[in-house]
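(Protein data)
===
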Amino acid sequence: MADDISRIAELDFAGVTPEEFARIVKGLSGKQFTEIAEDGTLRGRILQEVFGRMERQFKPEAAASVTALIRWKITGSGGNEDVVYETDIADGTCVVREGQSESKPRVTLILADAEFLKLVSGNVGPVALFMMRKVRVVGDVALAAGLTRYFDIPKA
């Protein structure tokens, strides 16, 4: 198991396609998700890469009329703190930033590392996460349910 995590830790995430990333996430066990979440350095690298790709995977034509600040709160485990990113969609553009601004989000999604990675890799949908009570949604539930329309989500 540790060997699998070592291989993941050695990956150059910038060189991994979204589809390859989706397959990697699909193949992870619950224990491996826990190990990744508890390794602060690896967790940080993965989250930075995922959020770094959001702007490139944004579909402006699908979100042309959308104006929304989306706050993502990824809950920490193993002594790691919660991580917050914001996705600001307006005028057919998407800007992602780390940290919490003073602006009021239209929706906040609160979820653990494993659920977040499954969501952004296309291995689970937002409605399924909500129904399983694996994501807490504060604000515009309809926007949260349709978020995957605005991004090119890979399929594993």
Summary: The beta strands are 68-75, 83-90, 93-98, 107-112, 135-139.
